[in-house]
Amino acid sequence: MITFNLVNISIIFRMKNLMENKIMTNNQLHTSQIEHRIIKELFLSIYFNDIERTIALKNKYPEVYLHRHNTIILDEGDEINIDLTNLTLLNKTIWNSTDWLNKIMPIVHKNQVKTEKMLHFWHTELKEENMPKKIIYNKYCDFFYCNDSNEKAEIFDKPLSYYLKKGFREIDVKLFNHAQCFDFEKTKLLLEKGANPNISFIENESNSSIKNRILVEYSFLSTCQVIPNFKKFEEKGYNQNFNIIDMFGDLLGLAAFQEMYYLLEKYKKIE
Asked: Highest-confidence range of 41-45, 97-101, 145-149, by mean pLDDT?
């Protein structure tokens, strides 16, 4: 009888612990879901240069806001680990471009002003030494049209050796490869040594140079992705579905292709 009671007591304690653990796990999951929602809201407010909403989220959720420099965002089964303040640097890069068409200048001017306000906000929030200075684009090569420098080097699905055997200069072949991997330092060094960004690597196809490859994607991202995203936001605000991963890739990609195009254009050679 005593043994039976002890067994019953043991079972009761085990069940009680299991229930408490289950409640704790559910609470943790609920907390995680709430934090994830807040992080997405913070991402969107910074992405669209919405300084009022950013400040409101900072004041309402200070614990989440504190982690803005090292934020993991989950969306559609993917995840990114980013410093949210970098979104403002990406905005600064793209909106300060001189290549925008006149017909979209109203939205460009509007976002130039909003971006400057966001930059001022970060400067007041952070010490100068903590302000992000530079974005390493190829760190996020999985999120935009960027070749991974750690993988086999190819140009149009052929190894670099193929083009060397065809008689292309090694310096031009290397330029194409480093530019498509968004290695700005190596690209600049090769350009300074005389590499030509206008060399076409496919016969009778003028668009097969590295400069044109960069320009095509630069134009596509600005015209078909980023500008439509910002126009839609002007119309619908936050009352729409957002694909965070795609949006990040579009903004990042546009800034990366723009900077690379400007670098190649600076050293252009007339054929």
From this structure: 41-45
Residue type, 57: L
- Indicate if 119 and 76 belong to the same structural domain: yes
Q: What is the pLDDT, as a whole number, of residue 126?
A: 80
Question: What is the C-alpha separation between 189 and 149, in angstroms, rounded?
Answer: 17
Number of Cβ atoms within 10 Å of the Cβ of 197: 26
Q: How large a percentage of the chain has pLDDT more than 90?
A: 57
The stretch 167-187 carries a mean pLDDT of 96
Q: Which domain holds residue 121?
A: 6-126
Same domain, 95 and 161: no
Give the separation between CA 232 and CA 249, rounded to whole angstroms: 17
Question: pLDDT (tens digit, 9 = 90+) per residue, 52-109?
Answer: 999 999 999 998 888 887 777 666 666 778 889 999 999 999 999 888 989 999 999 9
Where a domain ends, among 102, 126, 150? 126
In angstroms, the CA 240 to CA 244 distance is 12
Q: Residue 215: is its pLDDT beyond 70?
A: yes
Say how many C-beta atoms besides its own lie within 10 A of residue 80's C-beta: 18
Q: Which residues contact 213 (CB under 8 A, 6 or more apart)?
A: 176, 180, 207
* Burial (0-12, 13-18, 19+ Cβ within 10 Å), 38: middle
**Do 261 and 141 lie in a common domain?**
yes
- Evaluate if residue 188 carries a pLDDT over 60: yes
Largest CA distance in the chain: 100
SS3 7: helix
What is the number of structural domains in the chain?
2
In a domain, 131, yes or no: no
